[in-house]
TrEMBL record, chain A:
Catalytic activity line of the entry: L-glutamyl-tRNA(Gln) + L-glutamine + ATP + H2O = L-glutaminyl-tRNA(Gln) + L-glutamate + ADP + phosphate + H(+)
Keywords: ATP-binding, Ligase, Nucleotide-binding, Protein biosynthesis
Domain annotation Amidase: ranges: 28-475
Subunit comment: Heterotrimer of A, B and C subunits.
Name used for this protein in its record: Glutamyl-tRNA(Gln) amidotransferase subunit A
Source organism, top-level taxon: Bacteria
Sequence similarity: Belongs to the amidase family. GatA subfamily.
Source organism of the structure: Actinocatenispora rupis
Catalytic site positions: K83 (charge relay system), S158 (charge relay system), S182 (acyl-ester intermediate)
Annotated function: Allows the formation of correctly charged Gln-tRNA(Gln) through the transamidation of misacylated Glu-tRNA(Gln) in organisms which lack glutaminyl-tRNA synthetase. The reaction takes place in the presence of glutamine and ATP through an activated gamma-phospho-Glu-tRNA(Gln).
EC number(s) recorded for this UniProt protein: 6.3.5.7
From TrEMBL, chain B:
Protein name: Aspartyl/glutamyl-tRNA(Asn/Gln) amidotransferase subunit C
Keywords linked to the UniProt accession: ATP-binding, Ligase, Nucleotide-binding, Protein biosynthesis
Keyword Secreted: no
GO BP: glutaminyl-tRNAGln biosynthesis via transamidation; regulation of translational fidelity; translation
Alphabetical list of SUPFAM superfamilies matching this protein: Glu-tRNAGln amidotransferase C subunit
Class in the EC hierarchy, top level: ligase
Subunit structure: Heterotrimer of A, B and C subunits.
Recorded catalytic activity of this chain's protein: L-aspartyl-tRNA(Asn) + L-glutamine + ATP + H2O = L-asparaginyl-tRNA(Asn) + L-glutamate + ADP + phosphate + 2 H(+); L-glutamyl-tRNA(Gln) + L-glutamine + ATP + H2O = L-glutaminyl-tRNA(Gln) + L-glutamate + ADP + phosphate + H(+)
Molecular function, one GO term: glutaminyl-tRNA synthase (glutamine-hydrolyzing) activity
InterPro entries: Asp/Glu-ADT_sf_sub_c, GatC
Amino acid sequence: MSERQRATHRTAAELGAAIATGETTSAEVTRAYLDRIGAVDGAVHAFLHVAGDAAVAQAEEVDRRIAAGEKLGPLAGVPVAVKDILTTKGMPTTAASKILSGWLPPYDATVVLRLRDAGLVVLGKTNMDEFAMGSSTEYSAYGPTRNPWDLGRIPGGSGGGSAAAVAAREAPLAIGTDTGGSIRQPGAVTGTVGAKPTYGGVSRYGLIAFSSSLDQAGPVTRTVLDAALLHEVIGGHDPCDSTSIDAPVPAVAEAARRGASGDLTGVKVGVVREFAAAEGAEPGVVAAFDAAVATLTKLGAEVVEVSCPHFEYALPAYYLIAPSECSSNLARFDGVRYGLRSGDDGTRALEEVMSLTREAGFGPEVKRRIMLGTYALSAGYYDAYYGQAQKVRTLVTRDFTAAFEQVDVLAAPTTPFVAFPFGSRTADPTAMYLADLYTIPSNLYGGPAISVPCGLSEGLPVGLQIMAPTMADDRMYRVAAALESTQEPRLADQTPEVTA
Amino acid sequence: MAAISREEVAHLARLARLAVTEDELDTFAGQLDQILHSVARVGEVAADDIPPTSHAVPLTNVMRPDEPRPGLSREAALAGAPAAEDHRFRVPRILSEEG
């Protein structure tokens, strides 16, 4: 194996250590990943923009900072791919929509600033469902991303590009965003680790808003420790986000290291009874989940069944709340301040140009959700739809609160099915929405949740989801790391070689 | 019974400033009807006395120190605009002919 091939097989923690000790340089590692992207991204299409020379220049700058003795964090010099919904100064940011084609943001999102400050190198921007609305990346205006495990299947969504980039070793680390499962479900179906931190734990400044009360950025990686290290880089209070929590980041890296010992003595894990009873989960997913729970028991955890009676209403509540917020948030795309303008031939008035711009710039799923939200918020329907959904949100939160009085964390499959073939769910929007069945409750509640690879079904990865109480992100990392420690080799390192 | 008619979808599209095509109206009417039937399940929950939750983190009136700091320059703010003139965003006329 050549030096460059070796770089793309190491974990981010190992790369950071190798760069810090001078065994390799950030520029060398960055070039290795750019080579890898050049070799396989034609087949995978995880990236919408590759930073190329700009990434190498940033890496060389980090190498100079390290050589000058600057104290940078454990991931200094390690490349990272960023979902194309976070603004990057002077680097294209489209949210995978035609309406933002060619836009160069005038500022960095706080998450991106923190990556740069910690010495991480931005490799490029990853593909996604348009404005993060979807579970397969098939709604990207720039073509879908393909799953490295099977190029005929979806990589999950909305953050399929970030997950596929990490799975195909095109990036050691990636940033995703999770509104209803968009970090965790792609993680599950690509055999990678994806964590949604506590809502408010990571700044939303510069995250193009889909559903502001639910959106949360988080790490996508091949190991639990890498996710925790990246979480610590991007987390923490930000005065630019009024919903950011003013408290220290939970000690997630320490928890991941503790979990890696494989001892879960004293940890109480709850299995949600209503999820087990829900129809639609594939037998292979259920089998892999049951095996993972048995492993947790073997590691010393006490596993009990808990009841969360309102979880079955989380999905319909989400598909009222998220579209309602999206119909308001996406009003800003009006062809005036940025992005596309269509139909401005000198004869048409502003409102008509706005309508033509939005018609030309938005894809079908975005239009559906804007209209659904407009409906749910309109007079006469507000109480029955949006208002009722907000009350269900309260009840889902109470279910979590009651459950966490009995157990430390909750466990569930991440998603009901393995990666599905392209085109198999696009004709029926409600069939696509089922992908988020198990992930949505944590978004409504706001607590953290992680997906960690737990097995294979029909040769495709299955994820175990661990949900924790608000600001107890450390607990989920400990349990996920313990499960990961039983895998030799790690499932995330078993991705088949991509053949272009 | 349909939860939403084709005419209602056309009205929603106007409210949302989406100049949808006739073909799209046919597709969206059926799909939105199906989605609404599915999400209407929230109505099965007895929640009359339950307060609504708008946000996972209950915060009100969050302030940051009122300290001057540099904002975007005019050039940077206008750089992404489809049309700009005299340091301002340029827009089509606001009033329609019949207005």
